[in-house]
Design a protein that fits this description.
The structure is a homodimer of 198-residue chains.
Chain A (H helix, E strand, L loop, with lengths): L1 E5 L4 H10 L4 E8 L5 H12 L2 E6 L2 H14 L3 H16 L6 E3 L13 H11 L2 E3 L7 H11 E7 L8 H13 L1 H7 L4 E8 L2
Parallel strand pairs in A: 1-2, 1-4, 2-3, 4-5
Antiparallel strand pairs in A: 6-7
Helix pairs in contact in A: 1-6, 3-4, 3-7, 4-5, 7-8
Protein name (chains A, B): Alpha hydrolase
Pfam families (chains A, B): DUF7411 (PF24167)
GO molecular function, one term (chains A, B): hydrolase activity
């Protein structure tokens, strides 16, 4: 059985892949709008982890709509959830994909898919959507990350990652200038995975 | 790192243990009020699966209170949740236990612990509570069970299992007679694990 794990290069999606590895053939999938070379960045991390990797292009109107949402809201939650939902839907329509996974944790507030949306995606597309970390709290995730991964953590504007936020920030930068980014994205710590611990 | 997995001998707690096995030293723990020999039944299943196993005695007042709840409510949800919560609390107070896991799935409505209760147990006792199947829907669980486990399924009154329901039903039988059981426990399909698929 193959599982396609939505992969940002961060610790959560990396750990999700590691937890699935004994039971599935894991491929990591990074979604990108091609606004920044996030696919290449994620590929390098995926290779360091020893997983197959591919980049899936998401349509630019999805990012345009997410941009409109974050500007209107003044905070990124709904925009990030919208992109995540579009990414899962995009994978679910892939004829070769039966199991889709992501790195959402128990304590995450964003991104998150509500249960009605999950069941709709599963039923319409005949796929299984899984969040292997959904039953793990932050502290348990950190214990496992510490055991299996070498990571670097820094403020979000210093870490190059392949998550949805990265290209959404870039679109804001292009349209409204860099100072606008800080209006809607509060600074927070991001993680980037270097390699596995041996 | 050792994890203590609450174990009923059913497919969900067995699968939870199997998903944790590559990453933790797994011990299966069956909670019992000693009203029925459910610990012995679970031990046999645990041995078939190749996991360490122990039985933990829960205090009879817990079962008495659960009995009062199910009789008052007319349905078992709150009583089962109460016993489950007491079982997790009991394990959390064990000085040797740092990680506690159970077999709760995404689509389960009972037993389930709400997030406030989980965080309270974790913070008060310095433990990590994990539900490895919480991010898996019923269909995905069934695919994995089918791959890794040989099970038998039957109506609940025909399957001898070591779950909370078994001893709660027995207390109702002793106090109110067997016909009362069907008033509060709707018949439903239960699973019992035989062994692993090789």
């Amino acid at each position: 059985m193959q599982v396609s794990v939505l992969f940002s290069g961060g610790k959560d999606s990396s750990l999700a892949a590691i937890l699935l590895e004994p039971f599935f053939d894991v491929e990591l999938v990074t979604c990108s709008f091609s606004l920044l070379p996030v696919g290449d960045i994620a590929r390098e991390t995926a290779e360091n982890l020893g997983f197959a990797h591919r980049v899936v292009r998401l349509d630019m109107p999805v990012l345009e709509k997410a941009y409109a949402m974050v500007i209107k809201d003044g905070f990124p939650k709904n925009a990030i959830n919208y992109i995540h939902s579009a990414a899962v839907e995009r994978l679910a329509k892939d004829a070769d994909v039966n199991f889709i996974a992501d790195g959402i944790r128990r304590d995450d507030r964003v991104p998150v898919l509500d249960i009605s949306r999950i069941r709709s995606i599963e039923d319409r597309n005949g796929v299984h959507y899984m969040s292997p970390l959904k039953g793990y709290g932050r502290a348990a995730v950190n214990e496992l990350v510490d055991r299996y991964l070498v990571i670097e953590e820094d403020q979000s504007d210093n870490v190059i990652k392949a998550d949805y936020e990265t290209e959404l920030r870039e679109m804001i930068r292009q349209k409204d200038g860099p100072e606008k980014i800080n209006d809607v994205f509060p600074a927070h710590v991001q993680s980037h995975v270097i390699e596995r611990k041996s």
